[in-house]
Amino acid sequence: MNISNKARQHAESCRFCWMCRHVCPVGNADGQERNTARARALMVAYAIRGTEKDEDIASNMYECTLCGACTNNCKTGWDPKIFIQEVKTQLILDQHAPDYIVDLLKRYFEKGTIFQSERVKLEKRKTDTLVIISPQAMHHDQETVEKAYRLLNDATIDENAFDTGYTLWFLTGKTAETVAQAKKCAEAMNQYKEVVVYHPAELSFILHEYHEWGIELKAKIIGFHEKLLSMLSEGKLKVRKNDNEYSVQDHYALARELDDVTSCRKIVEYVGKNKEMLLIGKEANMAGSLIMAEYMEQKMLDVAAMRWQNAINMGCKTLVTCSPDEHVLLRKTAPEGYRVVSLEELLLEHI
Questions:
Q1: According to the 3-state scheme, what is the secondary structure of 196-234?
Q2: Residues 6+ apart with CB under 8 A from 136
């Protein structure tokens, strides 16, 4: 298997302490030992030595959400995402990717998206602020997207900035096609003074991968949650406060990759009281991925259902999300008497 020395080192640095066994959202949902970072590292180490075939580990790499819970809890400081993404790239180049991934990529290059549902249509405005709304949201959370766009009345969309390259990166790693798409999106972004990024994972991708790949960004890049918080603090958005309790579902990209566990809670405090769940901030469990739901939907629903169990155990009746993935999947699995709202829904309910 042809991966970098850095990726090889991370794959071979596991000390088999099993801490990752307790924190992997997929492993916890399906109870399979293969869905731990420890197991993936072992499989890749065998493949490097030629004792296991690439196609035998292919599906296993695509069952990782890249949420970084294992990295956050690793006692030796290694990062499975590094070798997982490189292995995906090699699988694509060697034509050993699972058939369901090949089918998704065919759909992407034919239609410009991996999602089959219709995409929400938003009217373009004349403004210096661009909002990038992820394909996941545009295809799966259309009503909520319209609400977000209504709140961001000084921002516009741009067809050339619809696709940041994140979907391709998730499915194929750093390929030439991924970098080309990222550069195309950056060119569109650089036509604006400010860029608001709706999805936390795409925000992290833009700030980290674009920088690593040498892609220049001239515009000011901020997250949707940051934009809402600034609108509240500057009095551009006024809401009514109540005594209801809300619990923030921390997104892994904000908490672990961007080190922001406070912004969403500050927004909640403008309208009500913050009630914490267990496993919050950097220790939070994710509630699913819509990209992965395209090829393992039931497992993503199981992941979301497990997060609801955490909420039930703490008596957290209303979850607040900043990710369209988690908003959609938690909404589909919400137990009776519990609900989930996005940041924009939370604010619009109290204007």
A1: EECCHHHHHHHHHHHHHCCCCCCCEEEEHHHHHHHHHHC
A2: 115, 199, 290, 291, 324, 325, 328
248 shares a domain with 224: no
Asked whether 82 and 37 are in contact (CB, 8 A), the reply is: no
Give 144-187 pLDDT, tens digit per residue: 999 999 999 999 999 999 999 999 999 999 999 999 999 999 99
pTM for the full model?
0.95
What distance in Å separates the CA atoms of residue 300 and residue 63, rounded to the nearest whole number? 10
Domain that holds residue 192: 129-229
Residue 186 shares a structural domain with residue 243: no
207 in the same domain as 256: no
Q: Are 280 and 209 in contact (CB under 8 A)?
A: no
Beta partners for 223?
Answer: 197
The closest of 147, 128, 121 to 224, measured between CA atoms, is: 147
CB 101 within 8 A of CB 17: no
Residue 306 tokens read as 């497990």
C-alpha–C-alpha distance, residues 161 and 262, integer Å: 28
First-to-final CA distance of the chain: 56
Q: What is the pLDDT of residues 45-73, one digit of tens each?
A: 888 877 666 667 888 999 999 999 999 98
Q: Is residue 166 part of a domain?
A: yes
Beta bridge partners of 103: none
| Contact status, residue 41 vs residue 109, Cβ threshold 8 Å | no
Output the CA angle 169-170-171, nearest 5 degrees: 90
Which residue, among 117, 106, 97, has the nearest Cα to 290 in the 3D structure?
Answer: 117
The dihedral sign for the CA sequence 280, 282, 283, 289: positive
Q: Tokens 């393992």 map to which residue? A: 296
